[in-house]
Amino acid sequence: MNKRICSTVLAVAFAAVAMAQSGTNSPYSQFGFGILSEQNNGFNRGMNGLGIGFRDHNQVNFLNPASYSSVDSLTFIFDAGVSLQLTNFEENGIKKNARNSNFDYVAAEFRVMPHFGVSFGLLPFSNIGYNYAYTGYLDNKKSTSYTNTYSGSGGLHQVFLGAGVELFKGLSIGANFSYLWGSFTRSVVNSYNDAYINTLSKSYSADVRSYKLDAGLQYQLKVSKNDQLTIGATYTMGHKLGCDPECRVISVNPQTSVSDTTKYVLSNGFELPTMIGAGFSLNHANRLRVGADYTLQKWGSVSFPEYSVVNDEPQYALQSDYFKDRHKVTVGADYCNNEQSRRFIDRVHFRAGASYATPYLKINGQDGPKELSVSAGFGIPIINRWYERERSRGNISMLNISAQWVQRSAASLIKENTFRINVGVTFNERWFAKWKVE
Predict the structure, then answer these.
(1) What is the rounded radius of gyration, in angstroms, for the C-alpha atoms of the chain?
(2) Of 389, 372, 361, 374, the residue nearest 304 (C-alpha)
(3) Measuring CA to CA, which residue among 54, 72, 64 is closest to residue 109?
(4) Could you tell me the pTM of the whole model?
(5) pLDDT of residue 254
(6) Dist. CA 233–CA 65, nearest whole Å
(7) CA nearest 42: which of 80, 84, 86, 11?
(8) Please, is 387 exposed, middle or buried when counting C-beta atoms within 10 Å of its C-beta (0-12, 13-18, 19+)?
(9) Per residue in 54-94, pLDDT tens?
(10) Integer CA distances (angstroms), 142 to 194, 306, 349, in order
(11) Collapsed DSSP state (helix, strand, coil) of residue 74
(12) Does residue 350 contact residue 288 with C-beta atoms inside 8 Å?
């Protein structure tokens, strides 16, 4: 038992190192906190991230911590996932492709007492990774050219510990407490082919060390002999992150290599918005589950630091119109003919889902990219044991594979089409069973 627990902790530590690598090439990640992660695991991804109203005794569902109370009494669940993606960028008829791979998440779950489950793990919150350049001319004669180079890397991550309890039959509540950390750097370099024009660069950096608190609720009720409805809700508390972002403006004389640096520091300049979610799932005869989620992230009430020049005076200050509220709707379904069947095909889960999300960014005064995505996948049992006395299957571990298409687009801005393969493995072990010797 101790060896297995140590192995789980080591896996979480390995995932922390792996997540430090950028998993995106999107130019949109240069704004705000970058590309926001959807924070779902293998079985959620087959349904395109659906999960607020889902309860599953052999899967970790950290989208709603109230679901932890449904964990099987005999098992320890360990879940980890990776992804591989290909993105096509298109602007003014020009197309480019980029490939990325990422270690996405790692989580574990177990029951400590009846109707009380605990989970812990590591998740991404946002991702930053881009590098591109633009070249133009200062005059019509095209004698003096300039190049603007944009680059950035980093992101935010969270390690969480959560618990869920069933207060009375049908009603469960839960919470995740997360340590939120990460750093990022962004830079814009303006250089010229004229040796008499100084090179100007702006460098932005931040180091976040804070917390994140998520609460969840689920209520189950029978609506017919074969149908069970689960209603769920989530809440994330908004607060200041206690981070002091920096901006450095550096002017370099290309002839003498002498530089002049001006440093700006903004006290407590980052803030996490309030987030709320609601969803439901309908379970028909333990075969077909369908559901829908709605989430609202109140970014519109959050300010963000930005460098600007006003009346010939440079300033690094909070801008109140940098973000806008993000709305997202997801629908999905999961079908499995019979989890306890001896036939392999009957135990396979078939999943599909679709989502639409409004932008959370404003870019040059206009709305940033909206997001449309669809997914489909399988949950394949990979380890099974048949208990003759119980006439049931145990140790049902699962290989979750899904394909996802995501499109980000905005008027007169870059259009992105991403095809992503997600692979997650859920190990379900009977750690807490008491064996009897006859």
Answers:
(1) 25
(2) 361
(3) 72
(4) 0.87
(5) 77
(6) 10
(7) 80
(8) exposed
(9) 998 888 999 999 999 999 877 889 999 999 999 999 988 88
(10) 12, 31, 61
(11) coil
(12) no
> Does residue 234 surpass a pLDDT of 60?
yes
Contact between 383 and 395 under an 8 Å Cβ cutoff? The reply is: yes
**DSSP three-state, residue 152:** strand
Read off φ and ψ for residue 173, nearest 5 degrees. Answer: -130, 160
Q: What is the longest distance spanned by two Cα atoms in the chain?
A: 95
The residues, ordered by sequence, that sit 6+ positions from 320 with a Cβ below 8 Å of its Cβ are: 303
SS3 27: helix
* 257: helix, strand or coil: coil
Q: Is the separation of the CB atoms in 398 and 382 below 8 Å? A: yes
Distance between CA atoms of 152 and 187, rounded to whole angstroms?
A: 6
Quick one: tokens of 290? 């369908």
**Rounded distance between C-alpha atoms, residue 70 and residue 56, angstroms:** 7
Interval 377-401: pLDDT, tens: 999 988 655 544 444 555 578 999 9
Q: Confirm if 141 and 95 have CB atoms less than 8 A apart.
A: no
Compute the C-alpha angle 400/402/408, nearest 5°.
140
Report which of 338, 427, 332, 336 is spatially closest to residue 379, judged by C-alpha positions: 336
DSSP state, 291? Answer: E
**Which distant-in-sequence residues (6+ apart) come within 8 Å of 202 by Cβ?**
187, 188, 247, 248, 249, 250, 307
- Show the CA angle centred on residue 33, arms to residues 148 and 29, nearest 5°: 40
